[in-house]
Design a protein that fits this description.
By secondary structure, the protein is α+β, with helices and mostly antiparallel strands. It has a single domain, classed as K homology (KH) domain (GMP Synthetase, Chain A, domain 3, 2-Layer Sandwich), CATH 3.30.300. The protein has 3 helices and 3 strands, in the order αββααβ.
Length: 79
């Protein structure tokens, strides 16, 4: 899932080297933390959070399709 998130975020930003994605596990949740430069955080999150919500929807859909629906996926964005 980490690679999918990284691929999507890199497509949205101009400075692709500033993108870093880290995955941690807390209880039954998988936390994916996306770090980008402060200047491009708005581009990743999108107007009204639409891009962020779209990324979350894709990850939740993939988790269900791949049989990982027993875990909760949380995606955090940092700038």
């Amino acid at each position: 899932m980490e690679k999918v998130v990284e691929y999507i975020v890199r497509a949205l930003v101009e400075n692709k080297d500033a993108v870093s994605v880290k995955t941690t596990t807390e209880n039954d949740s998988v936390v994916i933390t996306v770090s980008v430069s402060k200047e491009e955080l708005g581009r990743v999150v999108g107007r009204g959070g639409k891009n962020a919500q779209a990324i979350r929807t894709i990850i939740h859909s993939l988790a269900g399709k791949e049989g990982f629906s027993d875990k909760k996926y949380i995606i955090k964005f940092e700038g």
